[in-house]
Amino acid sequence: MLDATFPGLAWEGFVPISSKTLGSSTCVIHLAPDPAQAPACAQCGALCPKVHDTQYRRVRDRDLFDYRVWLDVPVRRVRCQRCGVGRERLSWLAPRARMTERMRLHAEVLLRLLPIKHVAQLTGLHWHTLKAIDKARLGRELPPLDLSRVRYLVMDEFALFKGHRYASVVMDAERRQVLWVGEGRSREAVRPFFVWLGEHCQHIEAVAMDQNTAMDLEVQAHCPQARVVYDLFHVMAKFGREVIDRVRVDQANALRQDRPARRAVKQSRWLLLRNPENLDERQAADLNELLAINQPLMITYLMKSQLKQLWYAKNERAARWRWTHWYNQALASGIEPLRRFAKNLKPYAEGIIASAVYPLNTSVLEGVNNRIKVIKRMAYGYRDSDYFFLKIKSAFPGKAR
User: Which residues does the UniProt record annotate as the domain Transposase IS204/IS1001/IS1096/IS1165 helix-turn-helix (predicted)?
Assistant: First the structure.
């Protein structure tokens, strides 16, 4: 009778004997042991007709139409001749679980597609219950790491929470696999990664990063044979902030008596920062006109283009020559923001020159950071950093070689 009422519901070793509804959306089904099937030991699988004791447990099963289904299950402990007293084997209910395997698998499918908040509204399960289910799934499904094959690393940071709280991420540059994520961006914060890497530190040949002194020093301490490669994107972004913007503001202030010229300089920020190939004909014409009448901006713009060419040298010797030539020109330019930037950049010169041998960059991690932002927005934030980091690793499992 209940089989007809609840088609497709089957619980191995048990049969439904009655049901009742609670309110308008909850159904409780009472199960009883199937008299035609003896219980089996959970450890060895042997049939055990002798029952030691029975405890009733209410567990959640998958919804049936508009009903939330609960089961009253008589969970037995059996006397096994080999193992002694122990729990009976239930293929559809894990030990101490409060939901069936069918419900757990259903929740896992939903969690692959939807944020926890939405799955909680759909299923009626608590946020922490769903987090535990998804966290266990992520731990099972993460691909194994072969650290012996890791030669090139990319390190970067991303905003973890509001209020200048950051986390660091390390990726295998060749396989695009996130190896490690940890809170903080100091030397102490990234040190656990190198401790975890252990003897495999000796295989690391190069590490790409931005101008993060903490990461640089930690790489030198644990991987002294590795070359540090500074990323083009971060250096050029810093050049734009500290040199182009400063020179532009200084030139605008010097043109207070010439309002049209001052307005043109003030509105030229994106013309100066964009790559020439990204300008349309009108923008290119405006840029050429601006540079023709303002020598400091022209020098700054040309020095930006020459600085970028350091990352495209055909070999280390050419890169070193380009750096020396650029550095001397910057000092001789007479433009103070440019001179100051060059002096501050000099300690990082070897990391720029190394890019000629190891053409690495953190652009791939910029894509990772964008994906991380999407993951955070979908979940409306994460209360468990370890769970969040598992989500990141799962999103970037790497590619096969």
Answer: 88-136
